[in-house]
Amino acid sequence: MQYLFESVGKAASLIVQCDAELVLIVWFSLKVALISTLVAAVVGIPAGFFIYLNEFRFRRVLITVLNSLLAIPTVVIALFVYAFLSRRGIFGSFNLLYTQSAIIIGQTILVIPMITIFVVSALGHLDIKYRKTAMTLGANRWQTAHLLLHEAKFGVAAAIAAAFGRVISEIGISMMLGGNIKGFTRTMTTAMALEYDKGEFVLAVALGLILMAITLGINIFINYFQGNINERYG
User: Fold this and answer.
1) Contact 152, 126 (CB under 8 A)
2) What is the pLDDT of residue 27?
3) Which pLDDT band, with edges at 50, 70 and 90, does 45 fall under?
4) Cα separation, 46 vs 213, whole angstroms
5) How far is Cα 149 from Cα 222, in angstroms, rounded to an integer?
6) What is the Cα Rg of the chain in Å?
7) Residue 103 and residue 28 in contact, taking contact as beta carbons nearer than 8 Å
């Protein structure tokens, strides 16, 4: 127990002193997670609106598949992307494997289903009168979507926050597609795993504390928006 307290104390000291290696790892993790989340949002939000606003064959099946993909292990996504990015893969000539781009691709694929299905859920909680009123007044699909986005903004924001939390804390994609290269593709989770293997816990504990703080902040953010949703429609 004393060793744990000592590690926490030294870890806190690293954080306060803004250790160069620590800052680099945290910055890289935040950068790739933000890019992945933004790209996934650009794809997932319109996809969610499309699924909600349109009745088409196999719609229910698609929603079921998207819900199932929420629980898919990150290593499965990593293995799938690896098959395409490796030298023998379709995109092997682009030399993307073990780069930041590879991590971003994998993380984006991971959270597109999450954002899509959360947006569908957020829209589903809206009063149907918004959609009917807009269509009665002659609004086209784009105008209707704009109105619904305004009304569901809290749910959409919560979906994006949840997706960011998912990618910032994953390890399978970052390890398998990034290779955990120091100063280039090393994220907080992969660095923690490496430090554990080396038996050096100070940096791992420092990164763990930062990751916990980020996760706590995301949960507070999501709960805030969910509170607004419940207050408005509850």
Assistant:
1) yes
2) 96
3) very high
4) 31
5) 17
6) 21
7) no
Residue % of the chain over a pLDDT of 70:
87
Under the banding of pLDDT at 50, 70 and 90, the label for residue 232 is low
More confident residue, 44 or 229: 44
Q: In Å, what is the CA distance from 79 to each residue of 10, 85, 148, 169, 177?
A: 36, 10, 37, 18, 8
What is the reported pLDDT for 54?
Answer: 86
3-state per-residue secondary structure call for the chain: CHHHHHHHHHHHHHHHCCCHHHHHHHHHHHHHHHHHHHHHHHHHHHHHHHHHHCCCCCHHHHHHHHHHHCCCCHHHHHHHHHHHHCCCCCCHHHCCCCCHHHHHHHHHHHHHHHHHHHHHHHHHCCCHHHHHHHHHCCCCHHHHHHHHHHHCHHHHHHHHHHHHHHHHCCCHHHHHHHCCCCCCCCCHHHHHHHHHHHCCCHHHHHHHHHHHHHHHHHHHHHHHHHHHHHHHHC
User: Can you give the pLDDT at residue 33?
Assistant: 96
Q: Provide the token pair at 121.
A: 């859920």
Tell me the average pLDDT across 126-138.
63
- pTM exceeds cut of 0.85: yes
Domains and CATH numbers, the chain: 2-233 (1.10.3720.10)
User: Among candidates 75, 64, 155, which has minimal Cα distance to 115?
Assistant: 155
Given a cut of 80, whether residue 161 has pLDDT beyond it is yes
